[in-house]
Design a protein that fits this description.
By secondary structure, the chain is an all-alpha fold. The chain is built from ten helices and no strands. It is globular and about 60 Å long.
């Protein structure tokens, strides 16, 4: 009781505790980012063999979010608890395995630190309110989706669809981000908007310009934030995505025909609208209520 009263009364204390929670959540998100695509690939192989009526075959390794235990991919040494402290362990080990000194991807501390910072900003923005926990859940999902898309160009249904339904459920329960009517319109309009762009581009250019995961992600953001947030999200993500793509092409880091994932830009724009949506909507649409 005293703890909750202190967190409610002292904003800086709440921000600090939420930042620490974000660091831990970031460590878990790294597990999701690494293992979920492998879990999906294994499931696709099993479904393909079943569809083709091939005899079942044991996969090389059963992978879940909890199995196998974390080990060094090079030497197989089990990672101990003190080596799993978010950010601190990576710095203490100087970014290398304690056993074989193989470099450890900088993705791990970046995801952990980014999650901690963004969660702290949620606490700063919403304080001790009904909006805080949902905002942390949305933040974690958007980070996981962004990094998975960057690594694999996939936006897994295992995250986007539950996120969509959770947004609608929260709206039905009187959630603070959007009323139910706005959430339903947002989900439908978000999906149909990018679905239409996809087919217009495909008919005009004869090739696909984005994946179905992008439709589902924008639908989920519409369910969480309402239809009023969709146009700012699309404009922000498109502008930043186009600028980033041009910069990478000029720098020689991206070929003109190479695909660039759009999910991270949608996720970033959605998170910006989560935190500063009221200000952005008021600036862009001063007459819209």
């Amino acid at each position: 009781m005293l703890v909750t009263e202190a967190l409610r009364a002292e904003g800086w204390l709440l921000i600090g505790w939420v930042a620490l929670f974000g660091l831990v959540m970031g460590s878990f998100l790294n597990v999701v980012i690494l293992r979920l695509p492998r879990m999906l690939e294994n499931a696709w192989w099993r479904e393909a063999r079943a569809t083709l009526r091939l005899p079942p075959r044991e996969l090389h390794q059963r992978v879940t979010l909890s199995h196998p235990p974390s080990t060094c991919p090079k030497c197989g040494t089990r990672i101990r608890a003190w080596q799993n402290i978010p950010v601190v362990s990576w710095l203490a080990l100087r970014g290398r395995c304690a056993a074989c000194r193989t470099p450890i991807s900088i993705q791990y501390p970046i995801v952990e630190a980014l999650t901690g910072i963004l969660c702290a900003m949620c606490a700063w923005r919403f304080g001790w309110s009904a909006q805080l926990i949902p905002s942390l859940a949305l933040t974690g999902c958007l980070i996981a989706l962004s990094v998975i898309d960057l690594r694999t160009q996939l936006l897994p249904d295992a995250i986007t669809l539950p996120l969509l339904w959770l947004g609608l459920l929260l709206a039905a329960l009187g959630a603070p981000f959007a009323d139910l009517k706005s959430a339903i319109y947002g989900a439908a309009a978000g999906y149909l908007a990018l679905w239409s762009v996809y087919w217009i581009f495909k008919l005009a250019a004869g090739k696909e310009g984005m994946g179905y995961g992008d439709f589902k992600l924008l639908a989920a953001l519409g369910a969480w934030l309402g239809w009023q947030a969709l146009l700012p999200i699309v404009l922000l993500s498109s502008a930043v995505g186009a600028g980033t793509g041009i910069a990478l092409i000029v720098a020689g880091r991206l070929g003109r025909q190479m695909p660039m994932p759009f999910g991270p830009f949608l996720a970033a724009a959605g998170w910006i609208m989560l935190i500063w949506g009221d200000t952005i909507r008021a600036a862009m649409f001063p007459t819209l209520h």
